Amino acid sequence: MATSGKELLVRGKLGDFLQEHGLQNSIGDIDEIVLSYVISILEDLGDDRNAEENIDVDQFVEMMDAYIPGFESIDSVKVCKWMFELSGLITADNQNENQNSGKEEKVCFKGDNSQRFPAADEQSEEINGNESVEEEEPDEEVRMLLEMFPDSCTLEITHCLGLSKGNLETAAQLVLERAEEGTSIKRPKEKTNITPKKGLVLLNDKDLKKKMVERYGYQDTDEDKKTFKPPPLKQEPKKMVRYLDGRIVSTKGERFTEIKKEDAEEMKKTYINLKPAKKYRFH
Protein backbone atom coordinates (compact mmCIF):
# COMPACT_ATOMS: atom_id res chain seq x y z
CA MET A 1 0.00 0.00 0.00
CA ALA A 2 1.37 3.43 -0.90
CA THR A 3 1.90 6.02 1.80
CA SER A 4 -1.14 8.02 0.73
CA GLY A 5 -3.23 4.86 0.83
CA LYS A 6 -2.03 4.08 4.35
CA GLU A 7 -2.82 7.62 5.48
CA LEU A 8 -6.33 7.38 4.04
CA LEU A 9 -6.89 4.04 5.76
CA VAL A 10 -5.55 5.24 9.13
CA ARG A 11 -7.43 8.55 8.88
CA GLY A 12 -10.72 6.75 8.25
CA LYS A 13 -10.21 4.14 10.97
CA LEU A 14 -9.04 6.77 13.48
CA GLY A 15 -12.03 8.99 12.68
CA ASP A 16 -14.42 6.06 13.17
CA PHE A 17 -12.68 5.17 16.45
CA LEU A 18 -12.98 8.73 17.79
CA GLN A 19 -16.62 9.01 16.72
CA GLU A 20 -17.37 5.68 18.38
CA HIS A 21 -16.11 7.05 21.73
CA GLY A 22 -17.80 10.46 21.51
CA LEU A 23 -14.81 12.47 20.25
CA GLN A 24 -16.22 13.45 16.87
CA ASN A 25 -15.29 17.09 17.55
CA SER A 26 -11.59 16.11 17.61
CA ILE A 27 -11.59 14.53 14.13
CA GLY A 28 -10.46 17.86 12.66
CA ASP A 29 -7.25 17.68 14.74
CA ILE A 30 -5.97 14.73 12.69
CA ASP A 31 -3.10 16.01 10.54
CA GLU A 32 -0.09 14.55 8.72
CA ILE A 33 2.03 14.45 11.89
CA VAL A 34 -0.57 12.40 13.75
CA LEU A 35 -0.97 10.03 10.79
CA SER A 36 2.78 9.52 10.36
CA TYR A 37 3.19 8.84 14.09
CA VAL A 38 0.31 6.31 14.17
CA ILE A 39 1.53 4.57 10.98
CA SER A 40 5.07 4.21 12.38
CA ILE A 41 3.75 2.68 15.62
CA LEU A 42 1.43 0.29 13.76
CA GLU A 43 4.18 -0.84 11.39
CA ASP A 44 6.44 -1.56 14.37
CA LEU A 45 3.65 -3.65 15.87
CA GLY A 46 3.33 -5.66 12.67
CA ASP A 47 7.08 -6.33 12.45
CA ASP A 48 7.59 -7.20 16.13
CA ARG A 49 6.76 -10.78 17.08
CA ASN A 50 6.55 -9.95 20.79
CA ALA A 51 4.50 -6.83 20.23
CA GLU A 52 2.02 -7.64 22.99
CA GLU A 53 4.83 -7.62 25.55
CA ASN A 54 6.81 -4.66 24.20
CA ILE A 55 3.93 -2.29 23.41
CA ASP A 56 3.56 0.70 25.73
CA VAL A 57 -0.11 1.66 25.42
CA ASP A 58 0.10 4.34 28.13
CA GLN A 59 2.85 6.18 26.27
CA PHE A 60 0.89 5.96 23.00
CA VAL A 61 -2.28 7.30 24.69
CA GLU A 62 -0.31 10.13 26.33
CA MET A 63 1.25 11.14 23.00
CA MET A 64 -2.09 10.96 21.16
CA ASP A 65 -3.77 13.03 23.88
CA ALA A 66 -1.23 15.79 23.20
CA TYR A 67 -2.38 15.91 19.55
CA ILE A 68 -6.06 15.02 20.07
CA PRO A 69 -7.50 16.35 23.37
CA GLY A 70 -9.74 13.82 25.11
CA PHE A 71 -8.00 10.74 23.70
CA GLU A 72 -6.80 9.85 27.21
CA SER A 73 -10.40 9.26 28.33
CA ILE A 74 -10.67 6.15 26.11
CA ASP A 75 -10.05 2.82 27.82
CA SER A 76 -6.50 1.56 27.19
CA VAL A 77 -7.77 -1.97 26.51
CA LYS A 78 -9.95 -0.72 23.65
CA VAL A 79 -7.06 1.36 22.31
CA CYS A 80 -4.78 -1.69 22.34
CA LYS A 81 -7.38 -3.83 20.54
CA TRP A 82 -7.91 -1.13 17.90
CA MET A 83 -4.15 -0.81 17.36
CA PHE A 84 -3.69 -4.54 16.74
CA GLU A 85 -6.66 -4.71 14.35
CA LEU A 86 -5.40 -1.78 12.30
CA SER A 87 -1.83 -3.11 12.41
CA GLY A 88 -3.06 -6.41 10.97
CA LEU A 89 -4.74 -4.60 8.06
CA ILE A 90 -1.60 -2.59 7.27
CA THR A 91 0.62 -5.70 7.47
CA ALA A 92 -1.67 -7.63 5.11
CA ASP A 93 -1.69 -4.76 2.60
CA ASN A 94 2.12 -4.52 2.78
CA GLN A 95 2.44 -8.22 2.01
CA ASN A 96 0.13 -7.91 -1.00
CA GLU A 97 2.12 -4.92 -2.21
CA ASN A 98 5.41 -6.85 -1.92
CA GLN A 99 3.98 -9.78 -3.88
CA ASN A 100 2.76 -7.50 -6.67
CA SER A 101 6.11 -5.70 -6.86
CA GLY A 102 7.91 -9.07 -7.06
CA LYS A 103 5.79 -10.10 -10.03
CA GLU A 104 6.49 -6.83 -11.84
CA GLU A 105 10.26 -7.30 -11.47
CA LYS A 106 10.06 -10.67 -13.27
CA VAL A 107 8.46 -9.14 -16.37
CA CYS A 108 10.98 -8.74 -19.22
CA PHE A 109 10.72 -5.83 -21.63
CA LYS A 110 11.81 -6.22 -25.26
CA GLY A 111 14.31 -3.65 -26.50
CA ASP A 112 17.94 -2.97 -27.35
CA ASN A 113 20.77 -4.42 -25.35
CA SER A 114 21.81 -0.93 -24.37
CA GLN A 115 18.47 -0.47 -22.56
CA ARG A 116 18.95 -2.85 -19.66
CA PHE A 117 18.18 -2.68 -15.95
CA PRO A 118 21.08 -2.10 -13.57
CA ALA A 119 22.32 -5.05 -11.59
CA ALA A 120 21.02 -5.77 -8.13
CA ASP A 121 24.38 -4.91 -6.59
CA GLU A 122 24.40 -1.53 -8.33
CA GLN A 123 20.87 -0.82 -7.17
CA SER A 124 21.76 -1.70 -3.59
CA GLU A 125 24.86 0.50 -3.76
CA GLU A 126 22.81 3.41 -5.08
CA ILE A 127 20.14 2.93 -2.41
CA ASN A 128 22.72 2.70 0.36
CA GLY A 129 24.47 5.79 -0.99
CA ASN A 130 21.24 7.77 -1.04
CA GLU A 131 20.39 6.65 2.47
CA SER A 132 23.81 7.67 3.76
CA VAL A 133 23.47 11.08 2.10
CA GLU A 134 20.04 11.55 3.63
CA GLU A 135 21.35 10.55 7.04
CA GLU A 136 24.27 12.96 6.74
CA GLU A 137 21.96 15.86 5.90
CA PRO A 138 20.01 16.78 9.08
CA ASP A 139 16.96 19.00 9.00
CA GLU A 140 18.42 22.47 9.49
CA GLU A 141 15.13 24.09 10.53
CA VAL A 142 14.44 21.53 13.24
CA ARG A 143 18.05 21.70 14.45
CA MET A 144 17.97 25.50 14.69
CA LEU A 145 14.70 25.50 16.62
CA LEU A 146 15.99 22.80 18.97
CA GLU A 147 19.03 24.98 19.69
CA MET A 148 16.72 27.92 20.42
CA PHE A 149 14.36 25.82 22.59
CA PRO A 150 16.37 23.00 24.20
CA ASP A 151 13.50 22.08 26.53
CA SER A 152 11.17 21.28 23.60
CA CYS A 153 11.08 17.85 21.97
CA THR A 154 11.48 17.08 18.27
CA LEU A 155 7.76 16.27 17.86
CA GLU A 156 6.77 19.69 19.21
CA ILE A 157 9.22 21.46 16.87
CA THR A 158 8.04 19.42 13.87
CA HIS A 159 4.40 20.08 14.74
CA CYS A 160 4.95 23.85 14.98
CA LEU A 161 6.91 23.85 11.70
CA GLY A 162 4.05 22.03 10.02
CA LEU A 163 1.50 24.54 11.31
CA SER A 164 3.66 27.47 10.20
CA LYS A 165 4.34 25.87 6.78
CA GLY A 166 8.12 25.98 7.28
CA ASN A 167 8.35 29.61 8.45
CA LEU A 168 10.98 29.73 11.22
CA GLU A 169 9.77 32.97 12.86
CA THR A 170 6.15 31.82 12.98
CA ALA A 171 7.22 28.39 14.27
CA ALA A 172 9.32 29.97 17.04
CA GLN A 173 6.38 32.17 18.04
CA LEU A 174 4.11 29.10 18.10
CA VAL A 175 6.54 27.21 20.34
CA LEU A 176 6.59 30.11 22.81
CA GLU A 177 2.79 30.51 22.83
CA ARG A 178 2.14 26.78 23.26
CA ALA A 179 4.72 26.62 26.09
CA GLU A 180 3.00 29.51 27.91
CA GLU A 181 -0.45 27.95 27.44
CA GLY A 182 0.79 24.52 28.56
CA THR A 183 -0.38 22.77 25.36
CA SER A 184 3.07 21.87 24.03
CA ILE A 185 4.01 18.25 23.40
CA LYS A 186 6.31 16.98 26.10
CA ARG A 187 8.89 14.25 25.99
CA PRO A 188 7.58 10.82 27.00
CA LYS A 189 8.73 9.65 30.37
CA GLU A 190 11.66 7.29 29.98
CA LYS A 191 11.86 4.29 32.24
CA THR A 192 15.28 4.29 33.84
CA ASN A 193 16.60 1.13 35.41
CA ILE A 194 19.43 2.16 37.74
CA THR A 195 21.80 -0.70 38.46
CA PRO A 196 24.15 -0.21 41.40
CA LYS A 197 27.87 -0.60 40.88
CA LYS A 198 29.80 -3.48 42.34
CA GLY A 199 30.26 -3.10 46.07
CA LEU A 200 27.39 -0.60 46.41
CA VAL A 201 24.06 -1.47 47.98
CA LEU A 202 20.94 0.65 47.53
CA LEU A 203 19.14 1.23 50.82
CA ASN A 204 15.55 2.22 51.33
CA ASP A 205 14.63 5.41 53.17
CA LYS A 206 14.21 3.79 56.57
CA ASP A 207 17.57 1.98 56.55
CA LEU A 208 19.33 5.03 55.11
CA LYS A 209 17.95 7.25 57.88
CA LYS A 210 19.01 4.74 60.52
CA LYS A 211 22.52 4.55 59.07
CA MET A 212 22.82 8.35 58.97
CA VAL A 213 21.75 8.63 62.62
CA GLU A 214 24.25 5.96 63.65
CA ARG A 215 27.05 7.73 61.84
CA TYR A 216 26.37 11.40 62.49
CA GLY A 217 23.82 11.43 65.32
CA TYR A 218 24.90 12.53 68.85
CA GLN A 219 23.57 10.44 71.71
CA ASP A 220 23.88 11.73 75.29
CA THR A 221 24.49 8.61 77.38
CA ASP A 222 24.44 10.57 80.68
CA GLU A 223 20.87 11.59 79.97
CA ASP A 224 19.68 8.00 80.48
CA LYS A 225 21.23 7.84 83.96
CA LYS A 226 19.42 10.90 85.24
CA THR A 227 16.16 10.60 87.14
CA PHE A 228 13.56 13.11 86.34
CA LYS A 229 11.93 14.68 89.37
CA PRO A 230 9.15 17.08 88.57
CA PRO A 231 8.98 20.18 90.76
CA PRO A 232 6.25 20.22 93.41
CA LEU A 233 3.04 21.87 92.49
CA LYS A 234 2.46 25.29 93.93
CA GLN A 235 -0.61 25.00 96.19
CA GLU A 236 -2.41 27.72 98.08
CA PRO A 237 -2.64 27.34 101.88
CA LYS A 238 -5.69 25.51 103.09
CA LYS A 239 -8.53 27.77 104.07
CA MET A 240 -9.48 27.19 107.71
CA VAL A 241 -12.40 29.58 107.93
CA ARG A 242 -15.86 28.10 107.31
CA TYR A 243 -18.91 30.17 106.50
CA LEU A 244 -22.60 29.43 106.75
CA ASP A 245 -25.32 31.83 105.72
CA GLY A 246 -22.76 34.59 105.52
CA ARG A 247 -21.52 34.04 109.06
CA ILE A 248 -18.33 32.47 110.37
CA VAL A 249 -19.12 29.14 111.99
CA SER A 250 -15.59 27.74 112.37
CA THR A 251 -11.96 28.85 112.19
CA LYS A 252 -10.37 25.38 112.46
CA GLY A 253 -11.39 24.01 109.09
CA GLU A 254 -13.89 21.34 110.24
CA ARG A 255 -15.99 19.83 107.53
CA PHE A 256 -19.06 19.47 109.73
CA THR A 257 -20.55 21.98 112.15
CA GLU A 258 -23.25 21.59 114.76
CA ILE A 259 -26.02 24.09 114.27
CA LYS A 260 -27.80 25.25 117.43
CA LYS A 261 -31.23 26.72 117.22
CA GLU A 262 -31.65 29.98 119.04
CA ASP A 263 -34.55 30.23 121.44
CA ALA A 264 -37.05 32.98 121.36
CA GLU A 265 -36.89 35.89 123.83
CA GLU A 266 -39.97 34.71 125.75
CA MET A 267 -38.42 31.32 126.30
CA LYS A 268 -35.23 32.91 127.59
CA LYS A 269 -37.21 34.69 130.35
CA THR A 270 -38.31 31.33 131.78
CA TYR A 271 -34.77 30.05 132.18
CA ILE A 272 -33.47 29.67 135.75
CA ASN A 273 -29.82 30.09 136.55
CA LEU A 274 -28.84 27.18 138.80
CA LYS A 275 -25.31 28.36 139.24
CA PRO A 276 -24.67 29.24 142.91
CA ALA A 277 -24.03 32.83 143.64
CA LYS A 278 -20.63 33.92 144.67
CA LYS A 279 -20.00 34.54 148.27
CA TYR A 280 -18.74 37.99 148.99
CA ARG A 281 -16.86 38.58 152.14
CA PHE A 282 -16.81 41.99 153.60
CA HIS A 283 -13.88 42.86 155.73
UniProtKB/TrEMBL annotation:
Residues 137-180 form the CUE domain. Keywords: Cytoplasm, Nucleus, Ubl conjugation pathway. Its main location: cytoplasm. Residues 117-137 are annotated as: Disordered. It is found in: Cytoplasm; Nucleus. GO terms for cellular component: cytoplasm; nucleus. It comes from the Eukaryota. CDD domains: CUE_CUED2 (cd14367). One of its GO terms (molecular function) is ubiquitin binding. Belongs to the CUEDC2 family. PANTHER family: CUE DOMAIN CONTAINING 2, CUE DOMAIN-CONTAINING PROTEIN 2. This is CUE domain-containing protein 2-B-like.
